[in-house]
Amino acid sequence: MKKNLTAISVSLFVMFVAGSSCTKNMQENPTLANTEKLSASATTTLATIDTATITLNWTTTYQRIDGFGSFAGRATPFFESPKRDSIMQQIWGADGLQLNMIRGEVLYTYPFDKPSGAVTIKPAGSSVDMDVNSAAYQALTSDQKAQIAQLWIFKKVKERYQVPIMFASTWTPPLYMKTNTSSVSGQNFNGLNYSCCSTDFANYVAGFTKAYQDEGINFYGVSPSNEPENVFSSWASSYWTAAHLGQFITNNLRPALNAKGLTSTRIISSENAAWGTANTFLSSMDKSNVDILAGHGYVEIGDLILGKRGLNPNPVTWNYATGNKPVWMTEACDDSGVYDGTMVGGLKLAVNMHQFLAVCNVNAYVYWLGMLAFNNNESLIGANADGSLVYPKTFDVMGQFTRFVHAGYYRFNAGLANNSTLKVSAYKDPATGKFSVVVINPGSNETHCRLNLSGFTAGAISSYLTADNSSTHWQQGSAAAPQGNGSYVLTVPPSSVITFTGIAN
Question: Whole-model pTM above 0.70?
Fold first, then answer.
């Protein structure tokens, strides 16, 4: 699903996520007003009335985490915003979400020199540092402003935060390369005209990638399609069959990238809107030259037909062999209705992230929009009419993962017993012994837990909380020390996400 924001002034960024570990109590939390300051006798009582048992097994390891990110397209309003630097800091900076990935767009509006395969990614004579109030900038077309805005975002993210994973997806080829040359959408099965333009389009994507490289941006990967099954929406899109997309990647795109010297640039595919659709699409596609398998995190097609939208609450593991290739979830948000900045919306994201990371075993999770110039469920940061920034609980929930689970961590086993409400996942850094446990409580009751460690021991663990009445981002609680048997007693507030972090001995 690609959101139709063309009639709206927007500024956006999207982000990555990380995980954390499990701690004892949160006596400094306003969310625990009735249970704060647990006495020694109360702690003993908790040990006998556990309503959940969590066991971390260090030796059972799953997928490597590549990281978390957000989308950097639709960039003009962001580029023009006087608050763009502080917003960028909240998305990629150390005191914000600490995302390590950024997703851009292979815009279809770039000038393209067919004989040489050169793509011009910024207007002649322009600079990414040009004053947005200058006459030169105001004289640019809307397409040119979008081109320079996206390039500015990528360059500044690299300069300021050294974001290592930058990639770009293609919504549609240039219109003159499509079967219906007058339509930007994929409606009526409008897609690439294979009879004339497969080579040209491959050279266009490769030329875009090379032009960014010349500006100092080495794309980790590129994707030739975005939601290739979308034949309903009016926004920019292009219809592909699985057979044609696989053939295009093998016969056209990989050779075109190699010819430009971009042999290390990975190809990402197929980025279908629903995870189940991506499973079906990719299972029948030639993936021999696909380096990263990808899908999006929206509801399945059956739910969409029934009028449902938003985050998929129950994606399932793909049922075909992925050949040990990385699997990324490259777009998700709640596009289902009226703005909700509370934990109701935050928990939707938490459950979605948990399902993708702990059930579908994805290596990376990328959110849709980082920022909008108004309040909307599709973005992590919003804005009031006076320009002041708004941080919905989705922003904080994202940080419960992204701030504490970093690239190079591995998910490891987090067993849950005696409870059917909590959702628990654990992540570790084999090099340092750091670990994080993310505990989601979508229920309305406080839950007392015992955390057991198997295959390792640890000292005191820290906790960070997001709840409706948490007073700060990732509210830190008191450290919890292990009991005599090495386990921990902890309390998980209702309707919350809490991350525990520690270091294995």
Answer: yes
